[in-house]
Amino acid sequence: MNISSVVVKTAPEHFDRVMETLKASGLCEIHFMDETGKIVVTLEGRDTDEEIRKMRQIMDLPDVLCADLAYSYSESEIELNLCQLERGKGAVPDALKSFPEDL
């Protein structure tokens, strides 16, 4: 399973209509919105192709100006990262081990 976060943008005057359309679409889950017309949603899919299909469907909804991918993660990446953490590899990157004042 893949999970992606997408920022959907609409004009403020179309905000309510786009929100209702997104809710009814079954394509995504809404997590955040603001008065400027930005809506943050997550998509789930079996694979990247399904997520891309859903994102294109969102982009084609009436009054949606754009839908931009913000973040994407897949279960296979999660499993790989968990294995690395369990073995102690890459638990904390060197760049994060010092504070800015230490640099």
Structure, described:
By secondary structure, this protein is an alpha+beta fold. The chain has one domain (2-86): Alpha-Beta Plaits, CATH 3.30.70.920. It is 34% helix and 32% strand. The chain has 3 helices and 4 strands; from the N terminus they run βαββαβα. The chain has helices at 15-25, 48-59, 75-86; strands at residues 2-10, 29-33, 38-45, 64-74. It has a 4-stranded antiparallel β-sheet. β2 and β3 (38-45) form a beta hairpin. The longest helix is centred in the middle third of the chain and has 12 residues, at 48-59. The protein is flat and about 50 Å long. The chain starts with a strand and ends in a 17-residue tail after the last helix. The relative contact order is 0.22. The model has no long low-confidence stretch (mean pLDDT 86).
In CATH terms, what is the fold-level topology?
Answer: Alpha-Beta Plaits
- Taken from the alpha-carbon principal axes, the silhouette is flat
Report the count of strand segments.
Answer: 4
Mean pLDDT metric? 86
The CATH superfamily title: Lrp/AsnC effector binding domain/regulation of amino acid metabolism (RAM) domain
Briefly note the structural class of the backbone. Answer: alpha+beta
**Number of domain modules:** 1
What composes the largest sheet? 4 strands, antiparallel
Number of helices: 3
Q: What portion of residues is helical? A: 25-40%
CATH-level-2 architecture: 2-Layer Sandwich
CATH first level: which class?
Alpha Beta
SSE order = EHEEHEH
Q: What is the CA-based Rg, rounded?
A: 18 Å
Oligomer state equals: single chain
Share of β-strand residues: 25-35%
Numbering strands along the chain, what is their spatial order in the largest sheet?
2-3-1-4
Detail the poorly predicted runs. Answer: none
**CA-to-CA gap between the ends?**
40 Å
